[in-house]
Structure formats: C-alpha cells, structure tokens
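look at this record:
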Amino acid sequence: HCGPLLPSTGGVPSSPLSEFSENPLVRHGSFSSSTWPSSTSDLSQLPEETCVLQATADTEERLAYFTEIPSEEGLFTQDFRCLTCSTHIGVQGQDYRVCGYDKRYYCKPCFGNFSIVIPSRIIYNWDHNKYRVSKGNFDFLNQVLSAPNLDISKLNVSLYDHVPELAKIRDYRRMLNMTREYLVRCNNKDEVSFESVRKKLGSHAYYWDSPHLYSTSDIQRVFSGQLLNYLKKIVQRTIHHVYCCARCSSFGFICEYCQSPKPIFAFELATTDQCAGCASVYHKACKRNLSCPKCVRRRKLKEQRAGTSLVRET
C-alpha cells in the first residue's frame, strides 16, 4: 500500500503532481503496490540517436543560424551568385531560391526540393511548420536533429509560459533528476533501479541531467505529446519506487517547521520547497518566506567558531 494514488483524470493534469493526491505521499487506500509495476520493462523506448558533427568552418557558419532567425539581405551581398556553386543568379542569371534556414540565395539545382522544420523558428515562435531549404542545409539539419544543443532557459525561457506541455515536461525532468539521487544509492535491484532507468533513457540520458536541454527531435516530440507521456510514465515508476523502497524512503525529510512525522521529498514539487543552500526540504505552506532553520543554525555556528577563534588569538 505504498504507491501514489493516481486517479484517472481523463486528460493531461495542470501540473505534474496534481494527479497525485493533495499530499503525494499516499501509503494507504485501496491501491496495492501491484497497481504500479516495479520495473521499466513495459515502458516504450525512444529511438537511439547519435550526432557526430565535424568542426569545420562550414559547420560553424551553419550552426550560427541554429538559434537565430536571419533576414534576407539581398542578392548583392552574394555578388548575384549561388552560395553553393557560385553560378550567376538573379538579374540576367539563372532563377534562384531563398533558403528558409539561412535566408541565403541558391540556384535551383543546388536548392533542390527539400523541406524541414527550422529549430530557431520553433524556439522563438513555436512554429513547427516545414520550410523549404537548400540541400546542404537540409543535410546539416538532419545530421544535428538529435543533438541536445537547445537550452530553453538560455534561448527563450518565456516559452514555458506560452507552452503548457513544455512547462510540464520541465517539471517531470526536475522530478526525474531528483529521484535519480535516490536510485544511485539504492541497492534494491528487484525494483526500478538506476541502471534500468539509465538503459531505458539510452542516448537521452541528458533528460535527467538538465530540465532545459533539448534536441530538435525532442521538441518535435513535445509538440506531438510523445515526450510528455514518456517522461510521465518513467517519473511515476521512479517516485513509486522511492515511496515503497525501505532504503530510499528513509532518505525523506522531516519538515522542521511543523515537525510532522510524515517524510517529505523534494520531487513533491506541488507541496514542498527545497533550500538552495543546504538542500533541506520543507512544506511550502510552512516555509512561506521564512529563513531555512538549518542554514540559520549553520550561520550561527560559523559565527560562534569565528568568535572563539578571535578570542584565542587575543
């Protein structure tokens, strides 16, 4: 009777923990531990993806447009020549096309007939439409499709406010990161283990390293809903393990404000706050704007030791 109570809401919750009970730590009720499988064997796995990109001047130039939306500057900036083959284009030259990725100009043979999503347009406009691009840029964008080089927190953190699904995924990844700290120390190999989750994540291990890092293919999975459902299932199982495992649950925190004997955990984002200074966890309703008791004690102890040392020197 240790699994979190997850009533069917018939839709996506407004926050990752809203579908748990008011207090996510539910160790009673009509749900047995068999309700939530204690392994990851039934979880679908995302395709393994690798990106090997050689550092060349051409690559560096193409990467410059990865996180910015350029504007057309006119054929004269290319001396009326195709960027790839230098064929004369435009006035008294061959027909040309404008690439949707770099806004540069190409002759029709070099341009081809290729369309793909543009990373910068997704990041800044949440635009998942495909745009016609040159063959060279099409090949490049396909090559870096799985590279986790889009940091939402640095590029456009306001995207979380405008895309609810992305905000939920951020919180699920925060919870996944927090539960990892328990799995790493756990020696119970019969249930969800660090190794089983690591294998399930595969080449997407950065999901639990940073909540803000994405590849272009990740962003597409956000748009389709696949990534939210995938992370939701993994987090449900890792949290269930922490609650049920005697060793993992023993690392829970006691709120120093209310002194409730029921342990609380940092991954209970809806109801707890974690101190940035000492990592202690408290109920949000208890802490409010109060100072962290543990940090206060540490500061006083440091001041006392400094005072004692000063007395000895004199």
About this structure: The chain has a mean pLDDT of 82. The two ends are 62 Å apart (CA to CA).
